[in-house]
Each structure stands twice: as structure tokens, then as C-alpha cells.
Queue: 2 jobs
Job 1
Amino acid sequence: MSLLRIIFAVLLPPLGVFLTEGIKPSFWINILLTLLGYIPGIIHAIWIIAKNDANAR
């Protein structure tokens, strides 16, 4: 599942964050970052996914 979320994070960053955390403040922050610049949205999405995976283990 993590690989699929990372692929979604590269293609559509808010979707990767949504699949990881749902609709929380990080989702809205990611939408804002994606609108301001696509690359910051990707970086934030991958960071959220990696942080969540590290906490799950």
C-alpha cells in the first residue's frame, strides 16, 4: 500500500495525503502547497506518507 500511496503522491499529491491521513489539516496544507507549486506539494505528501509509515512500525 505504501508504494501505491507514493505513486499517488507524485501524480496527485493531495490524494496521497488523503489516503494516508484522511481529511485532516495536513490534507488542506497539501492542497495549498500543491496550488502554490506542484513540487512543494509532492515533497509534503511524501514526507507525510514516510512519517506515517515510520510511526506504524
Note: The chain has a mean pLDDT of 92.
Job 2
Amino acid sequence: MIYFDHAATTAVLPAAADAAYRVMTRDFGNPSSLHALGKQAAKEVEEHRAAVAKALGCQPGELFFTSCGTEGDNWAVQLAVHLGRHRGKHIITTAVEHAAVLEPCKALEQQGYEVAYLTPDHTGRIPIEAVEAALQEDTVLVSMMLVNNETGAIQPVAEVSQVLKGRRSSALLHTDAVQGFLKVPFTPKSLGADLVTLSAHKIGGMKGSGALYIRSGLRAEPLIRGGGQEKGLRSGTEATPQIAAFAAAAELGYKHRDENIAYLQDLKAYALETLQAKVPGLAVVAEGDAPHICAVSLPGRPSQVVVRYLSDKGFCLSAGSACHRGKASHVYGAMNLSKPVRDGMLRLSFAPSNTRDEVDALAEAMLSATRDLVAAGR
């Protein structure tokens, strides 16, 4: 199997798996227990928090563990509107956000909020002028992802922060950095973000773990009430194996970040060049600013058919976000692409484990796909 779907999920790194296994079988105490094993578990959770915080570039006390990126996004939106409830009911987001942001915003519209959904240009990027035009005095939240999960476009989050400061807006700035963490250099401070969402399984950690950065000074409302874990903001026994794996993956990713970025940039450039040269009719729709994601199209060839064909040949890639479950991508729809191009969209997402030989094999498989599907009338 050759895997080019790392934006959907990644294999758990050996070091992360080892860390989780150790916690599951040896250091398995409940961090809330007062005996020695519990105290050791509590100490380790804080060490893991510090490791992820270092990789992100924030203080450990600003980082709160969650179950996933979706939970973090939901929490961020809810927190921002709660803190701004006396100031207004206007939200700015984009038409290319993950459903974890779009669905909470749609729910808020049913509660009387006005939401501006900014549309991208043909590259998938949101023009900063669109944010400036949409900003109102009663805007309480701007939520803009750092790296789009289907195009690799890097959005102007830091520039949005400057707009908010220049207009003296009290709106909070949230960014879904699930695809950006350890793929592009940033810190919450460099972005000017108040809230930042992370996910462990996108960087070699385990599914079921993530984190939300909450800027120091914000009076956060509890997401889950109960036993008082996570400073009382997210009660529930800590998922210590997943947290340990998250920290191990973050440490490794941070240590090798720059070399990984350079390798991925080179590999993606080679992939786009090779595919264009070897696969007739293939169109590069989004080269992707981030080093690990790009989008191409075989116009007129239904992407789901191509994905299944390639899967049968041992290749894993996608027609967009795994969260679409076969539905048409709202991201590609928002980019105003022609129907043939939109119908033939394929997302490639890379990891340092991928090689040029794998890219060459993919090009041959895609060439075969175009020939066989033509012959079959597909």
C-alpha cells in the first residue's frame, strides 16, 4: 500500500505508540488519584502539556487537552460568542472552513447570530480585503483556518490580526491550525490568535486527542463540568495514553520540523511536475502554500471512481476531506471551479515517509486509470 492521504490521518509514530503503551500498561494511574501512581500520572500529564506547548510556542497553562480537533473548534466558537455575548452577534468565518467550524456557526445563525462566510479566490485563499469589508462593530469572532485541508492554501491569519488591531475591534481571533501545526512555522503570538485548535492524529499521534490554545487572560467558560480537570474547563478523566502519544509526536515533529518542511516541499514539487508530465489532461488546481497538500483534477473523470480504482491498485488518496464521506466538497465548490474540474478533483497529502519512487508509481497508476476508465466509458 502506498499512502498519500496524510491530511486525513497519519500512522502513529513508533515513539508515540511506545509512550502510549507505557502509560496503558505501567504508568496507568488516574491523575486525580492521591496515591503514588496517581500523582505520577498527574506529573506526566503536565510534562506532556509542556512538550506540546513548546512545539506550539505558548505557555503550558494556555494549552488544554481535548478529544479531537472538532471538539477544539466547537469549544473555540462557543467560548468566543459567550465572551462577546454583551457586545454583539456578528461572526466572520470562511466558506472553506472545516465542518467543525461551519456547523457551529450554522447553529448560531438559528439563535439570531449573523455569520459572514467569506469566499476564496480561485487559488483557495481568502483576500484580506474581504475580511476588512466584513468586519463590523459588533463582530465578536473571526474564525479562519491556518492551512486549508483540501487545497493547502495558507490563509492570512496574521494579517487578519493586524486588521482587528487597526480597527480596534474586540473580536476574538480563532484559527483551526490542525493542518498547519508542525507543517508551517508559527506561534499563537506570531499569528495574533486568541484561540488555536490542534489535533494529534495529524502529526503522528493517536486519534482521540487534541488541544485548544486559549490566550492567557481570557475568562474561559467550562466546556464540560464535573471533576474539575483541565483547570475546571474540561472535566473528565484525562486520556493519558493519547496525551502521552501526542506529546511524543509533537516533540519529534518540532525537533525535525524544518528538515521535514524542506523535504515535503521538494517532494510535492516533484509530484506535481511528474504528474503533469506523465498523466494527459491532468490539471493542477491548487499547488498549496503548505508543503504537504495539493489538489489536482482529472476533468471529466469522477473522482470517486478514480479513488476506488487507485485503491484497488494499492494507492490511498482522496477526493477531498475525509469528513465529507463521499459528498461534494464545499471547498472546491466555493472556489468557483468548472463542473468537470470540480468533479475530477483529487487531494494529495504527503508525509516525510513518502518517496519519489512512490510518486513515480502513482503517476503510472493514474495514467492507467485514465486509459482504463476511457475504455470503460467512465
Note: The chain has two domains: 2-10+257-375, 14-255.
